[in-house]
Every structure is written in C-alpha cells, then in structure tokens.
C-alpha cells in the first residue's frame, strides 16, 4: 500500500480553469486528465488523502465520476465541500474528517495559523502541515512547516508520501 495526497481537484468547476490558469480547454478535458493522472499513480489498494474541494457536480455526475478514482479515499473537508453531508461523501466512498493527523503531519484544507502550528510542532512530534486551499498561491507560507498539495503544484497528479517527507527534509 502506498500513500498519496491531493487537494483542490474542483471536478466540474469551469471557472477554476481560468482562475488558476489550468492548461485545459474544457471542464471535461480537465476532469478526464485529473482522473487519468490520479489512476496512473494511485492503485485500488492505496490510501489517498484528498485535502478538500473535490467537485462542483450534481449527485448524478458525482456518482458516475468519483467511483472511477482508485484508492481508499479519506477526505479532509474543504470550503467547497461544506454543502454535502458526511453520509453523501460516505456513499461516494470517502471517509470524512475536518482535519487528520497522519504520520507526523497535520492534514487540513486550510494552512493552519502559523503561530499555532509552530506551537504544535514544538509540543508534539508533528513536523508540518500538509494542506490545500491556496492552490498555486503559496507565497508567504513558510515552506519549512507547510506543504500545499493542490493539483496545480503537482502537475495535476497526486503527491506521494515520499515527496512530502523530502519537502520537510526527512
């Protein structure tokens, strides 16, 4: 079993293409490439943490698309996931959390407040905050303690746990 991280897929979100200058001509092209990239790395038995903002689709499209994604999926809720119940995400195959601690990493959608994060690092064995939300806008975040896994920063594919460890110098 391998462990992967991603965030901010925004499946079905037309405006994210322009907002983040994603290299796609349509939502359909974006969605298919994101699915292909995900499944090229993540095997059915792997663990993948999605750190929020999964999709902008209606229930029918969600039910068609999400089961196509490999892996045991754990969702850390993002701001665009708030309109959906935990049971909805469970039906789609996600385990749902607001934050999660995994192998010395604090997983969250938003980058956590820096002062509180430093306090957590100093008082526990947490080594950093793996997050999404900011997409490609990581300026001002101390890269010694933050790692953004938004799809824009990973060539539209998930990040492997080894990449996260290397980022934090481990």
Automatic annotation (TrEMBL):
**Residues of the Calcineurin-like phosphoesterase domain:** 1-143
Q: Which Pfam families match?
A: Metallophos
- Entry's Gene Ontology molecular function annotations: hydrolase activity
Q: Which SUPFAM superfamilies match?
A: Metallo-dependent phosphatases
- Name of this protein: Calcineurin-like phosphoesterase
What is the organism of origin for this protein?
Paenibacillus naphthalenovorans
């Amino acid at each position: 079993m391998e462990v992967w991280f991603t965030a901010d897929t925004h499946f079905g979100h037309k405006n994210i293409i322009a907002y983040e200058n994603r290299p796609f001509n349509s939502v359909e092209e974006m969605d298919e490439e994101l699915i292909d990239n995900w499944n090229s790395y993540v095997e059915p038995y792997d663990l993948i943490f999605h750190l929020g903002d999964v999709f902008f689709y209606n229930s029918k499209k969600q039910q068609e698309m999400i089961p196509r994604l490999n892996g045991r999926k754990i969702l850390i809720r993002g701001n665009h996931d708030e309109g959906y119940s935990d049971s909805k995400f469970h039906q789609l195959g996600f385990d749902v959390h607001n934050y999660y601690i995994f192998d010395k990493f604090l997983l969250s959608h938003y980058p956590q407040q820096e002062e509180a994060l430093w306090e957590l690092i100093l008082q526990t064995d947490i080594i950093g905050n793996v997050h999404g939300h900011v997409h490609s806008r990581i300026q001002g975040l101390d890269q010694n303690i933050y790692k953004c896994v938004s799809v824009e920063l990973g060539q539209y594919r998930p990040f492997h746990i080894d990449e996260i460890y290397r980022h934090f110098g481990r």
